[in-house]
Amino acid sequence: MLDLAGIELTPEDRERLRHPLVGGVILFSRNYQSPEQVEALVRDIHGLREPQLLVGVDQEGGRVQRLREGFTTLPPARHLGKLYEENPKRAKRLARACGWLMATELRAVDIDFSFAPVLDLDRGVSQVIGDRAFHADPDAVADLAHAYMTGMSQAGMAAVGKHFPGHGGCAADSHVSLPVDERDYADIYAEDIVPFERMVHFGLAAIMPAYVVYPRVDPNPAGFSRYWLQEILRKQIGFQGVIFSDDLSMEGAKGAGDAVDRARAALTAGCDMVLVCNDAIAADRVLEGLGTYDNPASHLRLVRMHGRAHPKRTELAADRTYRDTVRVVSTIA
Question: What CATH architecture applies to the domain 11-332?
Fold first, then answer.
């Protein structure tokens, strides 16, 4: 999965995205100007290949919302967690509404999925996670995430839970360093893994692992660890969906070698699709260096990530349910 430089496809983008190893595109704020523009951009991306390339975006809400003007401002997950403490049923209804609204607006411009929800625990330690997490209580996180995923599913979108097995227990930011979590496996399993395990049983379609080292469990960051991805996530928890790597250009990934080494390490560990963002040179090197890599099982899993419903934006504007949901969500954002 690659990114783009601007608000429309360049000839270089088109050539790169037609490469047989490319399976998707991730959009960032720099790729967005208006709903009309991004809808045209996604149409161009989907028109390049058959089957279509996947198009994803980080549209969690709060400080991680790539598409803003023309889209509803979504609350950070922590807002829902605070409401949960007062009234769990109301908080779950609102989480479902947020998931539905986020997904409906993205599907209206034909974006396939958002990398959401965050399943990390809000331990008050990690600034990069912070209010992106629902709550410190794993049961509350599982409840709210389940409701959020249900809303997404009703809008025709698959969910991506992140960052397995939990990024909330260490202060370092994996974008700029390699975080280390010194806890024993038993402690991680008893708390941080709980939301992931429950969401898997609820039918979660995809998971993104963390670039965090848990040295008492495995010496490799989880995103490069066969133990975490194969033994724990696949075998012990029973996850059968897609595993997306986090961005291979992040600092927490660079210990695995150059761009090609990182991509190969993530795929070997068990990732179905790797993200190479914000580095066109690295993207080209990966496409040249991986050779004829192919995994039929990954193709079958990734089919689930294509969006289903595709409402028209003009229809949404006239839809009472949509307008009511915008009003309700806006009051908590």
Answer: Alpha-Beta Barrel (3.20)
